[in-house]
Design goal:
The chain is mainly alpha-helical. It has one domain (2-77). It has 4 helices and no strands. The longest helix has 28 residues, at 2-29. The relative contact order is 0.16.
Length: 106
Amino acid sequence: MACCETKRPASLFFKGLILLAAAGVKIRQGKRVAAARHAARAAALFRQVALLPSRLFEAAIGMKPAPPAVEAEAATTLPVVLREPMPGQPPQPVFDFILAPKSESG
């Protein structure tokens, strides 16, 4: 049983990341209802992770888990106009945040 209990926080976190990415894809596709559904599910999972005593996830993504949840939900309610990238250019970000490991100095 202990094995499964230690995997649960990580599975919540990774499932939330997958749903957040899926919400971004749906926003790009213009599918607002599906985007909102994925964002809401991701937000719920990130809020569960935020209640955990471990700060491992905070170090992994460079912020507490709750702010990406709020931003994802907000992105589904605002009109998003994404331009097609020019050849050789990266696509325009959907969300106003970047998930990256927290640096040693910050």
